[in-house]
Amino acid sequence: MSHSVEPEAVALSILIVTTTLSGLMVLEYAWNIRFEVQVIWRRFWKSAEVKVFVVARYVGLAGQIFNVWFASRMASGIPSSPAACRVWFMYQTIAIQSLTMSVEALLILRVCKMYNNDKYILGILSVFGGAQCAGMGISALMVVPSLGSSPTCTVIGTHPGQIYVGVSTVAMHLCILAMILWRYFRGNWQEPLRSYFKIMVRDSICAAIAVTGCFLFLTLVPIGLSQSAAQTSENILFHVMVCSFWFAAGRLVLDKERFRQQSRNNREFTEVDLEDLGSDSDVSPARLSNSKAVPIEVSIAADFEPGVGKEKDIADERLYDWADTSLSRCVSSIMHMDIGSRVEGSGSTSNLARFTTQT
């Protein structure tokens, strides 16, 4: 296949894939917009996760609309200058790195809450995060200036420098996933906090698989595919990554906020419970407003001393008023004290009479 025909076919494939993914993103956004406005937007200034979610969601959606426009321009065969193509490639790099860091920020915030901001965990995440940022920078400096492109800005060929960003990103997300799974399986979580952790771990696994799979494919493309397949995959992969990371960031926050809302409606959780996950025993279910006192049968055998009172069995009686019980105990104690004082007083009077007679 000649180079003049292949870019046109690749551009048409890009347009089809981009339009399909954009339709899915718009459909998902329209499905959740009411919940976002009513619940999530109100927490924008209170939660760091919501801030990351809002920025990634709307910037990513706007970027995907721009991608559809540029893909239609490529499919139409409209040529662009080399400088414009270089700006297009730089935009792709920035968009992917921004969405990747958004997903990582949401996962890191989740890990920090699970480990109660442990300094060793933060140190490990800092090392992996620094390595990833360095890999992204090196890949951007090596790949973007040396990419070959057609007049319509379709990528021709691949660059082995992609391996740096791929390996570092995969290692980062595998580390985060291992920390989340370790904390989940090692903790003795009680209901309903256990249900919340199931949702959180499920979304974290899906996000890690999406990011790891895309970057692993990006790493293996230069060495595992033929030239034509690699060229098509290289151009389409960017749009697939944008959509995947956009959905991953949305699931991490939307599902959590839905669980929070349902728990608040059922009064199973307080807001502090979901924000402080450092201890697996910090489960404080909220008291239900319509809760009723349940009568308890208590069997008590009261033994009185001979001569003071009569033994009485009050087994199987229902005690509805604890105040009356406490008052009865107080009265009984006072009676014992009174009787003891009288006995002691009578003994003292006898001793005094005996002393007087002897004198």
The name of the CATH architecture of the largest domain is: Up-down Bundle
- Proportion in helices: over 70%
What Rg is obtained from the alpha carbons, in whole angstroms?
A: 36 Å
Query: How many E strands?
Result: 6
Mean pLDDT: 74
Taken as a percent bin, the fraction of beta residues is under 5%
Shape: globular
Estimated structural class: mainly alpha
Tally of individual helices: 9
The profile of the biggest β sheet is:
2 strands, antiparallel
Protein name: Transmembrane protein
Organism: Rhizopogon vinicolor AM-OR11-026
Keywords: Membrane, Transmembrane, Transmembrane helix
Transmembrane segments: 12-31, 52-70, 90-109, 121-143, 163-185, 205-224, 236-254
Descriptive terms for the model:
two-stranded antiparallel sheet, 9 helices, mainly alpha, 72% helix, Rhopdopsin 7-helix transmembrane proteins, disordered C terminus
Summary of the model, kept short:
The chain is 72% helix and 3% strand. By secondary structure, the protein is mainly alpha-helical. Residues 1-5, 280-323 and 338-359 have low confidence and may be disordered.
